[in-house]
Amino acid sequence: MRYIGFARTCSSLPRCAARALSAAAVIAVAMTTTQACGQWQASAGTSGLNMQSLLGRNGVNFAGGASGAYRSTNDAASFTASNSGNDAVGPTRGFAQDRNYVYTCTSQGVFRSADNGLTWISRSNGLSSLLTSGIMQVQSHLFVVGPVGVFRSDNQGDTWTAAGLAGTDVRCITAIGSTLFVGTSNLGIYRSTDWGASWTATSGGLSSTSFRAIEAKGTTLFAGGQIGTGVFRSTDLGASWTLLGGGLPVGSYRGFATDGRIIVAGSFTAGVFYSVDNGNRWTAINTGLTDLSIFDLEIHQGTLTAATNTQGVFRFKLLNLIDLDGDRCVGASDLTVLLGSWGPCVNCPADYDGDGVIGASDLAVLLSYWGQCG
Ligand SMILES: [Ca+2]
Ligand SMILES: [Ca+2]
Predict the structure, then answer these.
(1) CA 370 to ligand 1 center in whole angstroms
(2) Which of 84, 114, 152, 316 is the most buried (most CB within 10 A)?
(3) How far is the CA of 28 from the centre of ligand 1 (A)?
(4) What distance in angstroms lies between residue 317's CA and the mean position of ligand 2's atoms?
(5) Is residue 247 part of a domain?
């Protein structure tokens, strides 16, 4: 496909500067950076806090960490503590949700809320360890993982039963359909196709044995390895794994988020990176982020949030990465910009996947966000 008649407008300026120039003027020349456009904003009410987990649900953003659970009703602009009936002492390690409830897991077990996080009740009956590392809801099942293995509840947390890997320190869990995947401390990644009745190690290609985060994007798995490794990807349900490069630095990764199109990875010392090509190439988005040690990431209603080790929660408008003309919507004017720079174009805003060419893959990204505003 060729688009004749569009003049290329790209310069060799880095992506952010190039876009700022076309939108406004000269001021941006000074801030040449290899990062993508957009800036993180600190979420009020979380300054100086350790945050380890995030969830978006029905317009409410949840964050949790060393001082308990917090909720936001203004798109993560500000958070307030929400620990009525909940553990406000031990770290809040995870959130999950189903149609009726939101759940959180902490060092004091599992808590459940029927009013979108205003009040909580303990739901730990049957757990042999109250210390937990992660929680996930899939189909009619709720799973919680921790230092003594996996537990499952089929009644929305009222009672729990052991679901395998007894005695294993399990750190994270995700699912593709009805296939479960967990990451452990020192024992790699395990898979279960029978809701935890049995587990099989899936270690092909893994050079890390410890995993603190695992995420499913469609049928692709991303797993965050230990210090000295990085992000591993599997496209065959965990049978084999590949350590990703493409601009992603070596390090420990503890959080992922996806909207089904973009995958975002959080490094424990190097900040946040995103990819629009399923993890082949990555771009940093760290402007405005004052703590580059990320515990968790979440995307809810177009807003990306990051939970940091010492500086609370930050938010970032995902559309910043796609909108080319700065009108905060994705549409015909952006398409005109993209087509106008069709072909080889280094550090151009429309080169979403960062391969140095404006082409069909970038067009597909733009069209996948068509009509969205934010
Ligand atoms: Ca636009
Ligand atoms: Ca491209």
Answers:
(1) 10
(2) 316
(3) 19
(4) 21
(5) yes
* 99-112 residue pLDDT tens: 999 999 999 999 99
For residues 249 and 89, give the distance between their C-alpha atoms in angstroms, rounded to a whole number: 34
Ligand 2 center to residue 32 CA distance, Å? 20
Q: How much helix, strand and coil, in percent to the nearest 5, is found in the chain?
A: 10, 35, 55
* Number of domains forming the structure of the chain: 1
Closest ligand by atom to 346 CA = 2
- 319 alpha carbon to ligand 1 midpoint, in Å? 9
Residue 174, in any domain of the structure: yes
Domain holding 61, by residue range, is 41-321
- Adjacent-strand bridge partners of 233: 222, 242
- CATH number for the domain including 210? 2.130.10.10
In a domain, 259, yes or no: yes
334 inside domain: no
Structure-token match 């968790």, residue found: 296
Ligand located closest to 347 CA: 2
Cα(335) to ligand 1 centroid in Å equals 8
Q: Ligand 2: distance of its center to the CA of 294 in Å?
A: 27
d(CA 29, CA 114): 51
Residue 19: pLDDT band by 50, 70, 90 thresholds? Answer: low
Structure tokens at 171: 């750190």
Residue 5 has pLDDT above 60, yes or no: no
* Residue-wise pLDDT tens digits, 38-87: 799 999 999 999 999 999 999 999 999 999 999 999 999 999 999 998 87
Burial profile 247-273: b = 16 or more Cβ within 10 angstroms, e = fewer: ebeebbbbbbbbbebbbbbbbbebbbb
pTM of the predicted model, to two decimals? 0.90
Those residues whose beta carbon sits under 5 angstroms from the ion ligand 1 are 323, 325, 327, 329, 334
Buried b (16+ CB within 10 A) or exposed e, 125-142: eebeebbbbbbbbbeebb
Which residue type is seen at 95? F
